[in-house]
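Researcher: Quick sanity check before group meeting.
Model: Go ahead. Protein one:
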Amino acid sequence: MSLDRRDLLRASTALGATTAIAGAAVLGTGPAASAAPAPAAPAAAGAGAPLRVHVVLFDGVEELDFAAPYEVFSAARFFTDRTVEVRYVAVSGPGYVRAAYGTRLAVEHGWDPRQADVLVVPGGGYARREDPGVWAEMRRGTLPRALEAAPRPGLTVAALCTGVMLLSAAGLTRGRPCTTHHRARPELERQGGVLKNARVVDAGDLVTAGGITSGLELALWLVRRELGADAATGLETMLEYEARGTVWSRPATPR
């Protein structure tokens, strides 16, 4: 399927989803009737600028870990007036990476978190310490050092599954609310993370999520936070997927 045809199909699905939601609200029937979409939230600071999402790749990365967030953020453009730019990046620069199950991926962009609003770190290979993956990246140290240097005002660093352990190796989860894959939680806590029993943990500029499929929840939550509830609801309808599990978020600071 060509990219143009795929975009056309997505756009048609998105239009149908939006129409169905709006129609149900107007007619007073269907699942949207009891909770009709609220008016669009006021534009956040910088809302006129593109939302720039960088998804980090490395050898041994889990396919679903990176594909689910990429799909959600890429499709988000059908549900918002704000431009959404999504790209794969690698700390080693442009080239190829081989994922956990052998998928060979071309990475066209180098490492530059200064040009990102959201940096998403997937996991992979944590159970097999001798293979490419999270453990190999921690031993090499290049990616953890790059992550350690990445935070700045305006950047949200997000990770899912055992990608959170790369943030831990970078010192970014120490003393911060976080979560990860259930098998890595004890180690995350030993390394100083403040473990929360939630599917997604939003600590402001640090957002983490649980196991492999939680990449969907992570991305849908960030779409809701950055682009609004209507965008997230439209995406769920298009994807035929309802976000599940608890989102832990830090209480808003009283004014």
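Researcher: Fine. The other one?
Model: Protein two, sequence then structure:
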Amino acid sequence: MEYLRRRVVLIAFVPGAALVLVALVIGIFLVQQANHVRGLADETARASNDVTRTVVGLQERRGHALLAGDRLAEYTGYTQRIDDAIAGLRELTRAAPDAETAYQQNTAVDLLVATEGLYRADSLALAGLDGTTRRLFTDAVGGYRTTLSSAAGRLTQSGRDRYEALVRGEDWSTLTAPAASRSWSSPAW
């Protein structure tokens, strides 16, 4: 009888031990996956930060260059470099560890594209519009408005709230008002 009891305990123990072993292997696998995903996330965050800094620096230099040299050549050169940097960032979304992360990264890139469009329009307007740059300005304005509107629908609730506050604000109303109805005030120096 004692032998039979030990045998039953042993038979009950083996599947339990096997389950513990399987759970341990799965746990190790999940930890490795988490470390891999964390590594990808860190790498993506660093790359995104680098690209964003590059874009901001290029935007600033483009604005200064438009005031000094061949405006169309300067605009085209800097804009192409910025587009290349953003394309590299968009390429990173393909390496995202899961669909949700890729979706969020793609939305973030679209917001950067919209911001870049706003900077393009601003740079052109500050440099002065002529027959050549007026079309580029119109394209930039239409582009950033379309991209921003599209990205807004994919934002989190807090992001949508910020977007709504932005487009309902006085600055946005001034920005989007027809030129004839704008009341620009001179700075009080």
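Researcher: One line on it for the slide.
Model: Confidence is low (pLDDT under 50) at residues 182-189.
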